[in-house]
From TrEMBL:
Domain (Endonuclease/exonuclease/phosphatase): residue spans on this chain: 100-322
Region of interest (Disordered), residue spans: 16-74
UniProt-recorded name of the protein: Endonuclease/exonuclease/phosphatase domain-containing protein
InterPro entries named in the record: Endo/exonu/phosph_ase_sf, Endo/exonuclease/phosphatase
Sequence ranges of Polar residues compositional bias: 38-60
Gene3D superfamilies xrefs: Endonuclease/exonuclease/phosphatase (3.60.10.10)
Residue ranges, compositional bias (Basic and acidic residues): 18-27
Molecular function via GO: catalytic activity
Amino acid sequence: MDLTLTSVFDSLPLKRKNTTDFDDHPKPKILKTEGPPSHSTISQPIPKTTTSRTARNTPSRTRKQNPKGRKEIDTGDLNLFDVSVYQSNEMVNQPMEGRNVQGFSQGLGRPLTVQILRGLCTTHCPIVVFLMETKNNRNTLDRIRQQLQFSNCCYVDPVGLAGGLALWWKDEVDIEVRFKNKNIIRCIISWPNVQERWLGAFIYAPLRRQERSQFWDSLKRLACENDYPWFCVGDFNEIGSIWEKQGGGECSRNRIELFQSVLSECALMDLEFKGPAYTWSNNQGVGFNIRERLDKALATVEWRELFPYAQVFHELMIGSDHSPIIVHCCIPPKRFPYVFKFESMWCTSENCRDIISNA
């Protein structure tokens, strides 16, 4: 019997529908959607991916329209993750005063540095301010000086972006600059209500050891030629004892002894201070932090006799890796008025009436 595919399919009980039957039956509601397609429950799930936020001008249907026309952010399905946020401060060295006397500031011109300097001047009202590592030209420094209402100035220009010194003072004090270079501003000062003039040396000692040794020799020569009471303040880049350093390697005793011999030959003594023990920090974390007392105020016995009540204060390190130093030159001690107190037991004395009548 000859069988063909046609005869086989014809013998099968298959019921075929016309293609037009699809048009006669209503379509499922899930397929009769208008506008943007919605997520269907029968569609294959789409894996979530991290999408970037897109801004669109039209407000969402579920949100109220923004009256100011601000852009609405449609976040959609986002995968959120944590972001670490760090805050750092560049640090500065700042003013010191003297009736406030003098001060330091490194990297002057940065917003935080200028803000801290302005705050110190407002709080302490200095009449002399000394700034180190200014790193700015005279025009920039003069704008800041005029804002802080200092009438006079003396500058040592930085070399490139390194160095630079500035000395500002008000009309209340008379300062005659005798010598200046990148490491020192030396001047003769006439202080208010003080008859004798004295020598002021505003110091920023060299960082290199060999140059610093030469600088010590220049201070020794100055001490031999000087006849005035002498006051020094600034960053000496050296410690005077093992107690003036914390962290890091072991202190060099040879350098400490050399620095002490310089102070002895110059007849300079370290003025006592109040506040934090260290004036410089490398701003490193635990285990790597090094702190030293590099900024000092020194004076001879003759200067100390002129200002017997002078006091030195170390401020907190804010905006710098150095602490501002405040020198109050004329702070009289606090004196309390004598209060007479009468003792009732005096009335029991036989001579009480006679003493009162003869008074």
